[in-house]
Write a structure and sequence with these properties.
- This protein is mainly beta.
- The chain has a single domain, classed as 6 Propeller (Neuraminidase), CATH 2.120.10.30.
- It contains no helices and 24 strands.
- The strands form six sheets. It has a four-stranded antiparallel β-sheet, with no helix packed on it. A four-stranded antiparallel β-sheet has the order 2-3-4-5, with no helix packed on it. Strands 6-7-8-9 form a four-stranded antiparallel β-sheet, with no helix packed on it.
- It is globular.
- The model has no long low-confidence stretch (mean pLDDT 97).
Length: 290
């Protein structure tokens, strides 16, 4: 691991950075508690930011240059040129302010998957939803508490998913043509593997291995999804590591978002980190095809 280089990039210190996605040479991510959507050039550190006027849990690119976002007010499109927001779905409006949308991504067919979180930690009061390009909105996984990391394998036959308080990574059989989920199975129980912190955001590499950021853990861990075994662990210089995504011209840089701890004073907390020298490549991200 001595050849691994970990450096903060950009100048923004996020209260709670999340949801990174590499798209068209830029890293797009959110600062949930600062209500911001950020677009970062990893090469020169230049940043653009938009105030969303609410907590924003995740973002994905749309065709034409707009963004698809999910947060306090549900799922909506956002035009960065005009600042206009167009609401598309708001399934848990009756649970505000105790529920909001959290993490999410697009599947290989361009459907948007995003889940909610019970911010008051009411067990089973959140869900995972899907929005397709025709505007069809559906409930996919019920009775979760903190819907978090989600990704798909290379041939789009498996979806991996994390409901953070369970401390488990699950896999679902996946039909990419229809977007239907099959039965779930356990990939690994991180608590049983000795992790006291919680699995948060997740991505996948070209070999099919899972990379998981651990909230309150100060690390990103790579797991073999077949055996559930830990392959490697990369420690970062702040405790709140929230999510990760591969990017760069060769998809061989791992970008990690972080947040500020409630009490610890950490000089580099809240920055985006770039990890080089891992010797692996990621998978391309997907945009919303709507």
């Amino acid at each position: 691991m001595s050849d691994v280089d970990i450096q903060p990039i950009g100048s923004r210190v996020s209260k709670w950075g999340e949801g990174p996605i590499y798209w068209k040479d830029r890293l797009i991510y959110v600062d949930i508690e600062a209500h911001a959507l950020i677009r970062l050039n990893p090469e020169d550190g230049n940043e653009e930011a938009w105030d969303m006027g609410e907590r924003i849990g995740t973002v994905v690119p749309m065709q034409g240059g707009n963004f698809l976002c999910a947060g306090d007010s549900g799922i909506y499109s956002f035009d960065p040129q005009t600042g206009r927001k167009y609401n598309l779905a708001d399934p848990e409006a009756d649970k505000r302010p105790n529920n909001r949308f959290n993490d999410g991504k697009c599947d290989p067919s361009g459907r948007f998957w995003a889940g909610t979180i019970s911010t008051v930690k009411k067990t089973g009061d959140a869900n995972l939803y899907m929005l397709d390009g025709q505007g069809n909105f559906s409930l996919k996984v019920q009775n979760v508490t903190n819907s978090n990391g989600i990704c798909w394998n290379a041939d789009a036959t498996i979806m991996y998913y994390i409901d953070t308080p369970t401390k488990k990574i699950l896999s679902y059989s996946f039909d990419n043509k229809s977007g239907q989920l099959g039965a779930s199975s356990l990939v690994t129980d991180t608590e049983e593997r000795g992790f006291e912190s919680s699995p948060d955001g997740m991505t996948i590499d070209s070999a099919g291995n899972l990379w998981v950021a651990f909230c309150h853990g100060g690390c990103v861990v790579c797991f073999d999804p077949c055996s559930g075994e830990q392959i490697r662990k990369v420690d970062l210089p702040c405790l709140e590591t929230t999510a990760c995504a591969f990017g760069g011209p060769n998809l061989d840089r791992l970008f990690v978002t972080t947040g500020l701890h409630k009490t610890l004073q950490e000089p580099e907390a809240g920055y985006v980190f770039a990890i080089d020298g891992l010797g692996v490549q990621g998978m391309p991200a997907f945009s919303f095809l709507g």
